[in-house]
Amino acid sequence: xxxxxxxxxxxxxxxxxxxxxxxxxxxxxxxxxxxxxxxxxxxxxxxxxxxxxxxxxxxxxxxxxxxxxxxxxxxxxxxxxxxxxxxxxxxxxxxxxxxxxxxxxxxxxxxxxxxxxxxxxxxxxxxxxxxxxxxxxxxxxxxxxxxxxxxxxxxxxxxxxxxxxxxxxxxxxxxxxxxxxxxxxxxxxxxxxxxxxxxxxxxxxxxxxxxxxxxxxxxxxxxxxxxxxxxxxxxxxxxxxxxxxxxxxxxxxxxxxxxxxxxxxxxxxxxxxxxxxxxxxxxxxxxxxxxxxxxxxxxxxxxxxxxxxxxxxxxxxxxxxxxxxxxxxxxxxxxxxxxxxxxxxxxxxxxxxxxxxxxxxxxxxxxxxxxxxxxxx
Length: 377
Description:
Layout: H1 28-31, H2 34-37, H3 54-67, E1 71-75, H4 78-84, E2 91-96, E3 110-114, E4 119-120, H5 125-132, E5 138-143, H6 151-168, E6 173-181, H7 185-191, E7 196-198, E8 220-224, E9 238-241, E10 246-249, E11 268-271, E12 276-279, E13 282-285, E14 290-293, H8 318-321, H9 334-338, H10 349-376
Parallel strand pairs: 1-2, 1-5, 2-3, 5-6
Antiparallel strand pairs: 3-4, 6-8, 7-8, 9-10, 11-12, 13-14
Helix pairs in contact: 6-7
C-alpha cells in the first residue's frame, strides 16, 4: 500500500511509479484497520483528521458493547467502526468525509458523507443507509465533528439522521454520543438539550496537544443522552461524585453554587459575578466584565492568529490568501476598527470571483500528478 498516494500497489508490476513514496506491506489486520494503514490528513485544515487514542477507543467500545446496540452509525469515527466491523453484532456503518475508505469498504458499510451538510456524495447513499437501518432496534449515533463546526449545523444533521431511523422503525431506541470540547457545551445544550456532558477526557493519537502524556489535558468531552450514572469511568484518573451521581476527574471538586462539578479539569473556584466556576488563578476584571488571568490586557481587540493584527480573522488574513490587493486592514471601516470585531471583505464581487478562479486553478494543478500516476497504472 502506498501511503503517499493512498492507493494499493501490485508488486513488481508498478516499481517505477512509487520509487520515492512510502510503501508498506499489507496483511489482513492492516486492511481491516485502514485508519492505521493510511496517513492521516492532519496537514489539510479543511479536512483535518485526528484519530482516537487506543485508550479512548477502548473506552467508547466498552460503552457501546455494554448497551447492546443492534446498529451503530459512526460519523467521522473510523476507529470505532473498525472495532466492530467484521462481526455479526452489532452492525456498523461508517459515514466519513474521507473518500479513501472506498478502497476498503463496500457501500453497504461505508458512505462518503459530509456531516455539516448531511450530504451523501453518492446518489444512492441514502438508499444504502436505509438498507443498513432495516430491522434496527437500538441505534447508537457517534459523532466526532471538527471543533470549528457550528453546533447548530451538526445538531441539524443529528436530527435528520434520527428522523430517518424513526421513519424506518418508530419504536427504535436512539442514543447519541457527540464528541466536542467542554467550552462549547453551551452551544450543544441550545441545539440538543437532552445531551449531557460526560467528564471523560477524549484523547487523540495524532493530535499535537490533545494526546496522552501531554502536559495540557484534553478539553474534549463526550456529550450523550445516555444517563451519566450508567457510565463507569476508569478508576486511575476519575472518581465518583455522589451529588452528581456521575464520574468526574479526581482533581475536580463539586461546586455547591453551580450544583454540579465544573468541566474544567484543573483546580477551580466559583466567581459570584460571572456566576460560574473558573480557574483558581483567574481574577474578575470589572473592565473586561469577566474573569481573566492576573496579567492580561484589558479590552484588547481580537487579533488575527497569523499576523497578530486586529480587524480580521485568520481565514481572511491577507497572508493566507497571498493576495494583498484583495483588501487590507486599512480598508476596514472605522466604526468596525474601534470595537475590535472581525471584519474583512473583498472590495468588489469581481475580486471575489477572481480569487475563486485562482483557487480552482491551484487545486487542478495540485491534482495533476496524481492523475498522471493513475493513468499510467
